[in-house]
Amino acid sequence: MNLEELRTEIDAIDDTLVNAFAQRMDVVARVSQAKKEQGLPTLDPARERAKLADIASKLPPELAQYGYALWSMLFEISRGYQNAMNPQPSALRKEIEGAMASTPNLFPPSATVACQGVEGAYSQLACEKLFKHPQVMYFGSFESVFSAIENGFCDYGVLPLENSTAGSVKQIYDLMLRHSSFKIVRSTRLKIDHNLVAKKGTKLEDIKEIFSHPQAISQCSAYLEKLGKDVKITPCENTAAAAEAVAQSDRKDVAAIASHSCVALYGLERLAADIQDRSNNYTRFICISKKLEIYPGADKTSLMVVLPHRPGSLYQILARFYALGLNLIKLESRPLPDREFEFMFYFDLETSVYSDEFIRMVDDLSAVCEEFQYLGSYSEVI
Ligand SMILES: C=C(O[C@@H]1C=C(C(=O)O)C=C[C@H]1O)C(=O)O
After folding, report:
1. ipTM
2. Which of 145, 178, 256, 361 could pair covalently with 114 via S-S, beta carbons 3.0-4.6 A apart?
3. CB 161 within 8 A of CB 286
4. Of the listed 142, 146, 285, 347, which one is catalytic?
């Protein structure tokens, strides 16, 4: 049989499938109505499991897995159709609508803002981009930034989330998992130009040890490699703290990788500028608050979902986003420390909070995921 004939055969089968699909969706619509009358939720995991087992038993063994994937997708589509026909405003939707109504139109120009590090930290520069007049308070660790928000000590907190050269700041993702009472209300992108700074009079060839934050060290790896093996690289809590330590040290053979603002701040000298591997080196910072605030124009949404470690669990969520036409701009996974074989997935989605897809996603999520956390909807200051 030639290709042409085989395709004619496929077309005939697809015609049957198209009709069967339309018929199935028609019944699904009636199922939805019946559920509405009986006050039942859209998702029925036991029914889906039973159906998958039945389908697998009816297919030749070599097709069972493909059948599993196809019917999982059909269930997704069927639930999406039911939710669209019979919208069940979720508790989360009500919370979001409440926050949209009560959040002021303008982002506050001034507020007390918690940052990790000391003066001159890149987080401080991010704060100045996010707020016109921030009253910055510095904390020793990222964890204390979360605590400062949660206990009401500061209005907002600013944290680095990812860098275009070195990737995600994994510590922040792990902390987001441990802290549940915070929301993301804004984000910003900061161009990061690293400098090698030292006490006045220090010569580059005398440097024996360089201090900085591991992210900055990683972003300048090519430069540091060129300096040779004799230069010791010592990671520390923060780039500005490294600059401060160098300024306070009696040694004349130490330097720090830090922002340019640290030069004047700590009376240092710049030995080298723009030492990062890539000139387009950006870090994304998030601004967190204790309560949900959704400012006008919010077009990014962040979520954290806990998924069982079994085939298809991530796929089901992604299929949902795909079915709603949502653009996924970030996906990060972290193992759950106290729950073996389970993972946390962090998603950033691009969609306006005023769009229908957004509302549908919010209503659908509770139906699709066993456990998820809505982290907020916000816009990014460029
Ligand atoms: C159609 C139903 O709703 C959902 C979709 C299913 C399907 O498409 O077969 C099965 C179970 C439910 O999660 C139903 O409950 O039967």
Report:
1. 0.98
2. 145
3. yes
4. 285
